[in-house]
Design goal:
- The chain is of the alpha/beta class.
- The chain is 40% helix and 12% strand.
- The strands form 2 sheets. The protein has a 4-stranded mixed β-sheet with strand order 3-2-1-4. Strands 5-6 form a two-stranded parallel ribbon.
- Strand 1 and strand 2 (58-63) form a beta hairpin.
- Residues 1-19 have low confidence and may be disordered.
């Protein structure tokens, strides 16, 4: 079953979501088989899973091009899935195995054994100057920060400081694309998609390594 073939998108999402609350193994096996069948028949465009982390539950989503979305719980995962359906494809299925590699690298990062990610990324949700900003962010070393002004300069538009803030606030791949390493010129944290406590936790973890 795919979302596209269902008569009611919301009903399918409500069917898939409870697995994270602990469905029986038989249902888990059925969903895995559905995911495999969907991939084999090229009817699965977006696979997703939810994982625990020190900054709350994270939704991971991937296309055949790579990981396309990481979402904090405060963003409302159901709404994030709906936007992915609207912008990429309604053929979405919870398929955890497709995101095993990304989940493992995130676990290593949060465990302090990984300082950079080696993942194929699908940047289709960003374009223009925002994409320029996101492509620069992985160059900010683990444990270091840059100001919004420094990032604007590095992204090719030194006067676009506010636009850098917007690019970070709309980053579809937080943590993996480390917008948490961008701070104000006075050293204060500034805003963050996952909330100020999440940004503080990530920066504190990296600084302590």
């Amino acid at each position: 079953m795919t979302l596209e073939s269902s008569p009611d998108h919301a009903d399918v999402l409500s069917l898939l979501e409870p697995l994270d609350a602990g469905l029986e193994p038989a249902l888990a096996s059925l969903r895995a088989r559905l995911a495999r069948d969907a991939q084999l028949t090229h009817t699965l465009d977006v696979a997703y899973r939810v994982m625990d982390s020190p900054v709350g539950k994270l939704l991971l989503a991937a296309t055949d091009r790579g990981i396309v979305r990481v979402a904090f719980e405060v963003e409302n995962h159901a709404e994030v899935l709906q936007r992915l359906s609207d912008t990429i494809s309604p053929r979405i299925l919870q398929a955890p195995a497709r995101l095993d590699g990304a989940a493992r690298q995130l676990e290593e990062y949060f465990g302090g054994t990984r300082t950079e990610f080696d993942l194929t990324v699908d940047f289709r949700l960003s374009r223009g100057f925002r994409l320029n900003v996101l492509q620069h962010l992985p160059r900010i070393a683990y444990g270091r920060t840059e100001s919004y002004a420094e990032v604007a300069l590095a992204a090719g538009s030194p006067n676009a400081v506010r636009a850098v803030g917007t690019a970070c606030a709309t980053n579809p791949l937080p943590v993996i694309i480390p917008c948490h390493r961008v701070v104000k010129s006075d050293g204060s944290f500034g805003g963050y998609l996952g909330g100020p406590e999440a940004k503080r936790a990530l920066l504190t973890m990296e600084a302590a390594a």
